[in-house]
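Lab meeting, item 3. Inverse folding demo.
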């Protein structure tokens, strides 16, 4: 999804969407690994349990056996749906003036918070572990002096690029405040 395709109605007149960020695909893959393991065990039980226990081959126990397996598969499907919903609806929107964090918690709870670039004091990138380093994903923390001291992008792809984009926008906002407009900045200041 490109930023121009995304509709966000709370933008100010001079504000534009620069980037929309979702969590890295490997994050959802790690959440699906236990599901794949349980699914494999359930499918193997279709073959193994009737062979091990002769009682399951009787006409009375077959419907109970299939009911339990179907129930497990439905629960797995619902859990997969919850994982996908959480992954897809967790969004960080970087605009020219602020960062908007839309975080889905379950099906019916959604938190939306924003951070103005002018309030950022420090931005930290955190890439920990083998897979995070190889696949280039990690956390980006924006430090502020407000009540909510840390604004975190969790497990996002290209965290160094996101940090650079945030720092660039932060500098533009600070320069605009200091000099009134980016065009009024002295030549030495612009070349840095």
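The presenter then showed the designed sequence:
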């Amino acid at each position: 999804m490109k930023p121009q395709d995304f509709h966000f109605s709370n933008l100010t007149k001079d504000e534009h969407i620069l980037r929309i960020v979702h969590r890295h695909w490997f994050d959802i893959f790690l959440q699906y690994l236990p599901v794949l393991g349980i699914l494999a065990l359930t499918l193997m039980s279709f073959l193994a349990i009737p062979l091990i226990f002769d009682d399951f081959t009787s006409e009375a126990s077959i419907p109970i056996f299939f009911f339990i397996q179907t129930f497990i598969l439905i629960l797995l499907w619902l859990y997969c749906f919850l994982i996908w919903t959480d992954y897809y609806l967790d969004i960080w929107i970087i605009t020219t003036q602020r960062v908007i964090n839309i975080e889905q918690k379950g099906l019916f709870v959604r938190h939306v918070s924003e951070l103005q670039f002018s309030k950022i004091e420090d931005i930290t990138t955190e890439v920990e572990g083998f897979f995070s380093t190889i696949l280039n994903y990690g956390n980006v923390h924006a430090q502020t002096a407000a009540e909510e001291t840390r604004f975190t992008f969790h497990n996002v792809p290209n965290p160094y690029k996101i940090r650079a984009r945030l720092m660039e926008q932060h500098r533009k906002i600070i320069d605009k405040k200091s000099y009134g407009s980016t065009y009024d900045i002295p030549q030495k200041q612009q070349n840095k």
